[in-house]
Write a structure and sequence with these properties.
Layout: H1 3-26, H2 36-61, H3 76-94, H4 105-125, H5 135-143, H6 146-157, H7 173-176, H8 178-211
Helix pairs in contact: 1-2, 1-4, 2-3, 2-4, 3-4, 3-5, 3-8, 5-8
Amino acid sequence: MNKIVSLIYKTIFLTISFIAIYGTFYSFTADSLAYFTILSNIVVFVFILIIWIKTVQDVVIRKEYIGYNTHLVKQKGVATLCITVTGLVYATVLADYTSIANYTFQNLSYHYIIPILTVVDYFLFDQKGKLKWFHPLIWVSCCILYLPYIFIRAAILGPSTTLLRYPYFFLDIDKLGVVPVIWWCIGLVVFFSILSYGLYFYDRWYAKKSTC
């Protein structure tokens, strides 16, 4: 794989991501960091930025023009998993396709463009065959930390707050009750696990195929 192509791709990727995130912080509120969407997009931006810097070093300093990305491949799975869930859950559960707000640049970037770019980046540019069976467990564990974060935040804010306690309806204990929210959380953990191990098994399959 040509690292110059990868560098150009990541430059476009970072530009789109930065514009979307800048729009959020330009209109930042106390509720902004309650959204998994915003948090996952920030995580992706940070990972891609670090890899972009290291790829620049590969190309400019080391004169390495050919090869797959080997930087943060194992750790980047967290970002890939989070943003994939962001895109899929929004598209299938949360999106209002009749609303014009669904088609703003920021919304399209957060929920469609960035998730797609992240997945494509993995398939095209990341080195395969480096993942171990336990890496998906680490990714899932990191991602589901969002759940206690939201519930602890809601408890601290209390029912009388004017802030948004539950950013997503399926986590709203006040409206749904404890048991339905528990089932939603279990479903999300299962969903995270299926996606992460799907990525792991694809990684193993592709690595074996490439050596044949």
